[in-house]
Every structure is written in C-alpha cells, then in structure tokens.
Write a structure and sequence with these properties.
38% helix; 4-stranded antiparallel beta sheet; binds pyridoxal-5'-phosphate; Aspartate Aminotransferase, domain 1; 15 strands
C-alpha cells in the first residue's frame, strides 16, 4: 500500500507550528518533544498578558480568572483520557509523576519479598524510580521480556504474577522505541487477578492514540504535556482515589496542607495534597489549549488515523532498504507513530547528523531505554517519530536522506 497523505502540513492547519515554518525543515522527533502550535502559545501569552495572578488563594478578579483557567485545564486533561478531575494531579513531567507513586505508594506498601514487575521495553523513567523504591523498601524487581516481534511475552507476565509476590506492574502503553502498543487492558486485568496494582506509562500513548485511561482499569496513569503539543514543565498523574487518599504526601509546602501547627500538619483534599507550592499555571493553561487543538483536528481517532498512514508508509519505504533493520512490530496497526531502525554500516549518531544536515530531524541514541538496547543487541538506534504535521513527503525526505548516508557509509 502507498496511501499518500496530503503534502505540506499533514492534519494540522497551515502555519499552525511556527517552528516548522523554517525552510526545508522536516521534524521527525515528536516522540522526544512535540512542536508547539499557535493556540498553545496564544493561551499562555493570554495568561501572562491578561490574567496573571496566583491561583486558588486570591479573591480579586485576576486571581479568579487565573484559577478558572488553571482548573479548567485540569478538567480538560481529565476528560481527555476519561479520568476523575480530583484524581488528576499536576506534576513537573511524566518522570516526576512516576516518582510520586514510587516515593509514596511504594514506600508505604512494599516490604522485603515483594516484587515490582516492569518490562524490558520501559523508558528509564519507568525503571529507575522503581529501583530506588526497591532500595528503600527491600522489595525487588523483575522484567517481562520483549519477544522478537517487539511484543511483550505475556506468558512470562502470567508466570511472574502466579508467584503471588508481584505487588505492582509498571508498563508502557506505547513503547518510545519499538512503537509497540501494549495490550494494557489485558495486562491490567491479569495483574489485578493476581492482586497487583498497575501503573501505566502513557507518555507516548496520549499524543498518539485515543486513550480511555479509566477503561484500561489502570490504578495510575502517567503522561506528559510536552509530547502532546503542550509546553514543557507539566506532567500528569491520574490515580485511583482510594490509593491516592491512603498515600502520604510526596512534597511538603504551601497549598498541599489543610492545617499547619509548629508540630504537625494535615493534608489538603485531592488533588492539592500532591501539589506542593505554586503550580505550573501557564503550563497547565497551555496544556489545556493543546488538548483543545487536538480535539479541533478531529480528535485522537483522526490523529491516530493520520499518523498510522504516515507510519505505514514509512515502514513500507524503509523495508526497501536491505541495509536497514526495523525494530518493533512491522504492522502499523500494532504500533504508534514512530519507527526505530539500525543501519549496519553507520552509527545512529552519524545517521542522525547526516540527516540533520539535510534538515531532517531524527533522534539517535539509546532513547532512555538501555535495557531494551541490550535486548536488541545494539547500543543505539535511529528513531523517526511522527506528529500531526507530518506527511508521506516527510518520509520521502527521510528515505532520500538515508540514501545520502548509504552513499557515504555503504559498501
Ligand atoms: C515512554 C516514555 N516514558 C516517560 C518519558 C519521560 O517523560 P518526561 O520527560 O515528561 O519525564 C518519556 C520521554 O521520552 C517516554 O518516551
């Protein structure tokens, strides 16, 4: 198949992304961070120019407006993935959201002999916090391996769960390297049947596929705005109310308290309990605008359909290069909007640099997934990831750029 997606700006309106107006630029690194569309810049600018005040405490109009915008963004984020508003907590990024759970839930619930089950395809931000939690509690970790086709070995998941020692499963919804869309609802059901709770890292899923976090059954669902067309500096933790209420606070300070004496304090209701200090006000407002921007493109079903076409085209074109090994599922239906690959003749950093000189921006390295690199027997890979602005012509530019790499490094 070779469906051609319209030239120019993909699914997004012409001129939506100021950065992409740069002559000759092909941005294929949305999985690292997405570009920022005008409505997001405008919304943040509007806050700073027209409604700048602290939130929650003020009783004057500016503060009320700022609070309305900030809490409106929380409502938007919660609705976007179908989660409760009060159980939607703002953090600094996805890593901090996972650390919040590791430092609070894990520290108070795990004992020696308990295990945390991760997978070999996790981003370091869904591995290292659990290693730290294990150091603190005496619990240990195990990992579900990745099969040769880039999917998880669910037999090992079942075998690990059957030991009865797994208290938490931490798993990516969509892999940032393989693109694999994991069967999250199934994994959660199996974990729950074995008495384990589940944290889902939805960082790559939320910007790429329709997500109903409640329907997955996950106990915690984590994502980040800067990969979903929002600004840097804000991540999101959705948690199950009973768990959040039972967890101790993560960071102490203003806003997260109900009462404070010199001796002790009591905690604010959710979500404030986990939001110490002044929140990411402009960032939340920008994130809300980003989600509205995605809705206005036709919603995540339209985004997914668009990126799936571009990804299918990329898989088809890249498969024609005999020197290139593709990682992850070969079927676009089974993966998100990114492709990682390896060229025997050139190091990924050289590939990315030569592509960069031709205006094609891709990511090279271990992608914060060193255990997965080890599993793939490589030290690094090249990754092209797609966003709403990309087209099949962008893939053609990638393939042409790789042609130049092969001229320089190939036999
Ligand atoms: C799958 C996955 N999880 C977590 C993260 C970390 O996100 P953040 O930078 O917002 O902490 C990333 C970022 O690359 C990612 O791809």
């Amino acid at each position: 198949m070779s469906t051609q997606v319209a030239a120019g700006h993909g699914l997004s309106p012409a001129g939506a992304f100021p950065t992409l107006e740069r002559e000759g630029l092909v941005y294929l690194d949305s999985a690292a961070t997405s570009q920022t569309p005008l409505p997001v810049l405008d919304a943040m600018d509007d806050y700073y120019r027209g409604h700048r005040a602290s939130v929650h405490r003020g009783v004057y109009a500016l503060a009320e407006e700022a609070t309305e915008l900030y809490e409106g963004a929380r409502e938007k984020a919660a609705a976007f993935v179908n989660w409760g508003v009060e159980e939607t907590i703002f953090t600094r990024n996805a890593s901090e959201a996972t650390n919040l759970v590791a430092y609070t839930w894990a520290r108070t619930n795990l004992v020696p002999g308990d295990r945390i089950l991760v997978t070999t395809m996790e981003h370091h931000s869904n591995l290292v916090p659990w290693q730290l939690a294990c150091e603190m509690t005496g619990a240990s970790m195990a990992a579900v391996p990745v099969l040769d086709d880039g999917t998880l070995d669910l037999d090992v998941l079942d075998a690990e769960l059957a030991t009865g020692t797994v208290k938490l499963v931490a798993v990516a919804h969509v892999s940032n390297v393989l693109g694999t869309i994991n069967p999250i609802t199934d994994i959660v059901a199996r974990a729950h049947a074995a008495g384990a709770i589940v944290l889902v890292d939805g960082t790559q899923a939320v910007p790429q596929i329709p997500v109903d976090a409640s329907a997955t059954g996950a106990d915690f669902y984590v994502w980040t705005a800067h990969k979903a067309y929002g600004p840097t500096g804000i991540g999101i933790l959705h948690g199950r109310r009973e768990l959040l209420e039972a967890m101790p606070p993560f960071l102490g300070g203003g806003h997260m308290i109900s009462t404070v004496s010199l001796e002790s304090s009591t905690w604010a209701e959710l979500p404030g309990k986990f939001e110490a200090g002044t929140g990411p006000i402009a960032e939340a407002i920008g994130m809300g605008a980003a989600l509205t921007f995605l809705d206005d493109l036709g919603g995540m079903a339209a985004v997914r359909a668009h990126e799936r076409e571009v990804t299918a085209y990329a898989l088809e074109q890249l498969a024609r290069l005999p020197q290139l090994t593709l990682h992850g599922p070969l079927d676009a239906a089974a993966r998100g909007g990114l492709v990682s690959f390896h060229l025997d003749c050139a190091h990924p950093h050289d590939v990315a640099e030569i592509l960069g000189r031709q205006g094609v921006c891709v990511r090279a390295g271990h992608h914060c997934a060193q255990p997965l690199m080890k599993r793939l027997c490589i030290s690094a890979s090249t990754r092209a990831s797609f966003g709403v602005h990309n087209t099949t012509q962008d893939v053609d530019r990638l393939v042409a750029g790789l042609g130049r790499v092969l001229e320089l490094f190939g036999d």
